[in-house]
Amino acid sequence: MKKFFQRLILFGLVFFVLDKLFYIFLYAAPHLEADKRLELLLNGKINKDVIVMGSSRGAYNIIAGQIEKETGKTSYNISYAGSNIQFHLFLLKTVLKYNKKPQIVVLSLDDPSEFLFDKSLNFRLDRLYPLEKYTYINQELIDQNDKSKFSWFLYLARLNKSNFTFTKKKEALESPILSCGSMPFLEKFSKKELVFDTKQKHYFITKELKNKRKAFLEFQHICNANNIKLIYCFAPNFRVYNPVLENRIKSIALRENKFFVYDTNISAYKHKKYFHDVSHLNMRGAKLFTSELSKFINLNK
Amino acid sequence: MLFNSFNFALFLPLVFILYWFISNKNLKFQNLLLLVASYFFYSCWDWRFLFLLIFSTLLDFFSGIQIYKSNNASQRKFWFWLSIIINLGFLGVFKYFNFFADSLKDLFSVFGFQVNMWSLKVILPIGISFYTFHGLSYVIDIYKKRISPEKNYIDYALFVSFFPLLVAGPIERATHLLPQIKKERTFNYNRAVDGLRQILWGLFKKIVIADNCAVYANMIFNNSADYSGSTLVMGALFFTFQIYGDFSGYSDIALGTSRLFGIELLQNFSFPYFSRDIAEFWRRWHISLSSWFKDYLYIPLGGSKGGKWMQIRNTFIVFLVSGFWHGANWTFVVWGLLNAIYFLPLLIFNKNRYHLEIVANQSNLPSFKEFMFMLITFGLTVFAWIFFRANNLHHALQFVDGIFSKSLFSVPNIRPTYIILLLLFFMMLEWLGRKDKYALEKMGFQYHSLFRWSMYTVLLIAIFIFGTKEQEFIYFQF
Q1: Which structural domain range is residue B229 located in?
Q2: FRET label pair with B5: which of A195, B55, B71, B340, CA 20 to 30 Å apart?
């Protein structure tokens, strides 16, 4: 028995020491990323007055630098394409934990999938993997049931197959990240064949996901508790506007929160030269939309 | 509590220490500790089903005693059938009720009648198929006067509920396990190290092989209509390795864990993908279930005693029941039927006990003929797994139809190099260790212990790096 435990402990110690050598991969991973916004957030470097959050519709349609110029308030965009409200909630908590509390949070909403199942909107675990060296991120991955608790003390358990590369990731050519965190689509990459959709989409409350709604309510509760002005932002799609999601959110939103919907009377939003694809504006469209948003912020200062 | 979870990594050492240090030299206390640990382990899934497990255990325990005590045949029969009917009744209600209700509904609709069948909203108690079979074999053996009943409830309950085998086997026999439970156990260094080694190999199979293959197998099976024939073949291959890695990995962990407590469980797998015919495959795949069916279904039905026709009929019955045992879905029945059909030529030409030794037993490589037989058997198995994995018969047929199309000869849409390399490495290790109980059993013994330690370290590193989130074992659903 003694020999068994001696060998077991010795093997465990050797493995534990060996495991520490793998820290090099964890250390290197953030340096290889093109998008460093989340790491800036973790390092407390995003101390801004206005924070823009959302999925791709927040990242591509809203230019935080322009808001800064037009409102005089420092702004930053931490929207991630393909992210859901649960991920936005995680980002909000991260902002508040490591950075100065913002005055305003602009939450860009996904019309109509904000509360519905949409396989393209997820908790962006892949954005967390390169930052596994941070205990906070590791704990979030454990909470998301993506990593085992072994990762509390073993670096190997924090690693993924994707960590074993030293190739620097490239920025997206179509939408490079600006210093303000926004990533509007360059006009030259806009899709040519776009047809304005005049049909209104249906919305079924019964199909809403409980978890998404719960995260949404927690999001607004945190903003409210921290005295942060929350603006729900509805950006244009290349189709006729249907206020059904707006009304749905109004029914569960706190009274003090603001609603900003793009001006549906502006004819530019029906013209394809302002759009990258049916769901996203291009740089020209984003500038127009952001200027509208800036005016709204100025009016609600 | 999964074998591949953090919680199990805490649970196992704790039970191990209590077992060897606190309750050492007291067999009763050791058995009681293992039983309490087993019940705790089981209740981690759903504590409510613990009552079902205890009820089933009590039923078989008392039935066994009554059968043994009874002097007249009718009383013996009464207790015997009481146990059989209640055990199979639970299995029927929890596992098959909705299947029969739906099948009946479909049958009525064929004749133009629309019936609203009552369906049960119950979840399947984990391990029910396994512990029910434990109990059944025990009661049958007493009824057939092969064994006498166990008088100590703790010992009997441990035989049914021993945590390494509780949720997915191996399906033990009273004649094999109960004597070990009754016998004093002393710590043996070599056996404990062997146990750890087998756990390590099981974890590698499950986490590195099965869970990584599962990602692509699921992707391809769940969107089979979108993929080319060659990609569908890849999907079937990935599932073939997934199910092997998953179930044999589970069995290795179970056997290794049990060995840590000085108890040997029945070997459940013996390199089935190196089989040269389907009969050999079934002597090497899920051995404890195959032998259970042989002893408690095939032989009571007459086995091969009634001539060729009887042998064929009984083989078909065994395979159909075995398919149905796996799950309440026609896909499993067809999977069983396919295997029975594969078996048919071997039965007709009396070749079903042709390959009893492992392939290339006296050499390093198989002969060309052996290799071709292995390849054909493997191909037939892969084909049958399509039915096992498919969501329903329509899906399976659509999948098969997709394979046999022009795109069968195109380059697959999905070809993850790292998994293909991993599989090659894995099969190489399996080949090298094919003469042992499990591939890692004696691997590297001819070299310095430093070599073996390095090998175990590499496997452990692979387990962590290739590990995805804690994933359930496929056979838990059966």
Answers
A1: 190-276+355-477
A2: B55
